Amino acid sequence: MTIESDIKKFQAEFNQTLAELFQQIPADRSPILHQAMLYSLTNGGKRVRPYLMSLVAQALGISTQTIIPAAIALECIHSYSLVHDDLPAMDDDDLRRGKPTCHIEFDEATAILAGDALQTLAYETIANAGVNDSIKVNWIKELSRHAGYYGMCSGQALDLAAENSQISLAELEKIHHLKTGALLRAAVSLACLAKPDLPAEHMKQFDEFAQQLGLAFQIQDDILDVTASTEALGKPQGSDEKLNKSTYPGLLGLEQAIEKAEQVYQSALEQIRDLPYNTQSLFNFARFIVQRQH
Amino acid sequence: MTIESDIKKFQAEFNQTLAELFQQIPADRSPILHQAMLYSLTNGGKRVRPYLMSLVAQALGISTQTIIPAAIALECIHSYSLVHDDLPAMDDDDLRRGKPTCHIEFDEATAILAGDALQTLAYETIANAGVNDSIKVNWIKELSRHAGYYGMCSGQALDLAAENSQISLAELEKIHHLKTGALLRAAVSLACLAKPDLPAEHMKQFDEFAQQLGLAFQIQDDILDVTASTEALGKPQGSDEKLNKSTYPGLLGLEQAIEKAEQVYQSALEQIRDLPYNTQSLFNFARFIVQRQH
Predict the structure, then answer these.
(1) Is Magnesium among this UniProt entry's keywords (chains A, B) (predicted)?
(2) Core-most of A19, A45, A83, B40, by most CB within 10 Å?
C-alpha cells in the first residue's frame, strides 16, 4: 500500500470516529455551537498529527485503539488553533482548505467560542479515555505543555509580532519550533507515553525526530505558499507575502530553502535510524512530508 | 472574623500563590503573552470560586493546600472566559473591575491568545498537582464538563443569541445555569472530589446547593447592574440594558427579582442543612452572595 492510500484509509476511519464522537454529544445545549465545533473539526483536515501518532504507536506495538483518544484530543487542539488563527484580529483568513473559515460560515463570536470549546473537548476526551489514570495524566501534562504558553500559543504570538518586520533565521526557527513544531512533537510523544516501559533514551530520540520533522514540515509549507496554486492549497497562494511574514524562501531564497528542507529531513531520519523498532513507515511519512505538493 | 475580612485574607493568599506560579513560568517564550496572561489573571478578581471551593474543602476536613491547584485551574478558566467575553465580537467591554480589559490594554490578537493559554494552563496545573492521579483525572473530567460545550461555552453562546430578543424566564434560567452556574458548581464539586470517600448522596446535596447558589448569584448580578453605580461595579452600570440583554429585573420587575433572589438563597441553604459537616461558613457565604453590593 502506498503512503497516500494508507493516509486516505486512516483519514476515513478517523473522520468516522469523530462523527461518532459528535453523535454522542447532544446538540441541545447550543445547536449553533455544536454545529460550529463539528464544522471546524471536520473541515477537510489532513489528520497529519493523528496519523503520525498512529505510525509511532504501530512502531512501538501499541494498538491504534489505545491512542485514539489522545489523537482526537490533539486534533481538537489543532482545529481550535486554526479557528482562532483565522479570525480577523489574527491572520484574517476567509478560506481554509477550500471552504469558508468558521467565522465566515458562522460569525466571529461563535468561532471564538467553538475554538474555546474544542480546546476543552481535548482534555475532556483524554480524561474519559479507556487507559489507566497514569497515562491520562501524562498525556495531559504533555499535551498542555506543547499546546499552551510553553508551545503553540507563544508561537502564534511571536508569529503575529513578527509580521511586517524583518527577522533572523534563528527567530524564524523559534517561531516555527513553537507554532508548528510543538503539536507534531506532541503527536510523537503522546504515542510514546502510551508505552510506559519505553526507555527514556528512545523517547528522546523520537522527540528529536519529531522536532526535525516539524521543521521540515514548516519549510515545505513556506515553499508551497510560493510555488503551489491557490486551488491546490485550499487557501490563497502567497498569503505569507501578503501579510509580510518572514519565510524560509524569503530569508534563504527558494533554492536554498528546498535544500534546507532536504537536509532537515535527512537529519530527522538520523535520529531514529538505530532504534530497535520497525520505523520504515515513519521514514516514508517523513519523505511524504517534504515532498507533498499541498 | 467577619466574612468580608475572611474573603480579603483568602484573596491576598490566593493572589500570592498566583504570583508565585507566574514567577516559575519563564517570560522568554513570549513576553507579551506572559504579561497578558498575568494581567488577566490578577485583574482584581474577587476569587469567588476559589474561596467557595476552600469553604467546601474546610467543611469536609480537606486542607486548602490540597485543593489549591484545582482552585487555580478554575480561576484560570473563569479568567479566560472573561477575556474572551470582553472582546469586541462578544460583549465589547472596555472596562473590567475598573481597569482596561485585556484587548484594550494589549490588543485583540493577544487577548484571544492569552485566553487560550489560560485555558491550557488550567489543565496543566491540575495535571501537575500534588494529589494522586485518580483525583487529577476526576478533577479534569468535572472541570472540562462544566467549562466546555456542556456548560459555560454553551451558556455564552445562548447569551449572545438572546441579545436583542425577548426570552422567557425558563430560557433565561438555562442561560445562567450554563453560563454562571457551571463554574460555581465546578467549585463545589471539585472540592468534593478531593474527598474520595464522600457519600454520593452528600455530593449530590452539595451540587444542588451550588446550583441554587449560582442562580442567586446571577439574579443579584442582574439586580446590581440596575441599582449599583458604575464606580461600585467597576464596569459601566446598565450595560445589560445597553446590550438589550434579558435580565431578572427586566422580566420580573426589580421588586420581584429581589424576592426571587431571597427565595433561591433559602432553597440553597435547604439543600445542605442536614449534612453532617460544619456548613456554617457556607451559609454565611450564601448570604454574602445575595447581599453584596458590587
Answers:
(1) yes
(2) A83
Q: Which three cell numbers stand for residue B99?
A: 481597569
- Amino acid code (one letter) for B172: L
Best B24, B25, B33, B85 member to test A by mutation, with max A CBs in 10 Å, is B33
Given a cut of 70, whether residue B151 has pLDDT beyond it is: yes
pLDDT at A292 (0 to 100): 82
**Nearest Cβ partner of A134 from B30, B84, B133?**
B133
Residue in the structure block whose three cell numbers are 493559554: B117
Residue A163: per-residue pLDDT = 85
Cβ distance of B156 and A120 shorter than 8 Å? no
pLDDT at A109: 98
| Minimum Cα–Cα distance from A114: chain B residue | B153
Class of domain A3-289: mainly alpha
Q: Quick check: B133 and A138 in contact, CB under 8 A?
A: no
Structural element, H or E, at residue A99: strand A99-100
Reduced to 3 states (helix: H, G, I; strand: E, B; else coil), residue B59 is helix
The class of domain B3-291 in CATH terms is mainly alpha
Count the alpha carbons within 13 Å of B148 in the hemisphere toward its beta carbon.
26
Residues of A in contact with B112 (CB under 8 A): 84, 87, 89-90, 112
Alpha-carbon distance A132 to nearest alpha carbon in chain B (angstroms)? 9
The three three-digit cell numbers of residue B127, written as one number: 495535571
Q: Which of A30, A34, A176 to mutate to test the interface with B (most CBs of B within 10 A)?
A: A30
Residue A65, pLDDT above cutoff 80: yes
Name the residue with higher pLDDT: B166 or B79. Answer: B79
Using CA atoms, how far apart are residues A188 and A74, in angstroms rounded to an integer? 11
Query: Chains A and B: how many Cβ contacts under 8 Å?
Result: 153
Interchain CB distance below 8 Å, A157 and B127: no
> CB distance A30–B116 less than 8 Å?
no
Who contacts A66 (Cβ-Cβ below 8 Å, separation ≥6)?
A57, A130, A131, A194
Share in percent of chain B as helix, strand, coil (round to 5): 75, 0, 25
Judge whether residue B37 has pLDDT over 90.
yes
Residues B226, B227, B233, B235: what is their CA dihedral angle, to the nearest 10 degrees?
30
Give the per-residue pLDDT at B283.
Answer: 96
Distance CA B6, CA B9 (A): 5
Who among A109, A115, A133 is closest to B133 (CB)? A133
Q: How far is B258 from chain A (nearest CA, A)?
A: 28
CB contact under 8 A, B157 and A112: no
Taking an 8 Å cut-off on Cβ atoms, the answer to whether B30 and A149 are in contact is yes
Nearby residues of A204 by Cβ (< 8 Å), 6 or more positions away: none
| B119/A124 touch (CB, cutoff 8 Å), yes or no | no
**ipTM, 2 dp:** 0.95
- Using an 8 Å Cβ cutoff, are B73 and B125 in contact? yes
* Nearest of A159, A184, A172 to residue A219 by alpha carbon: A172
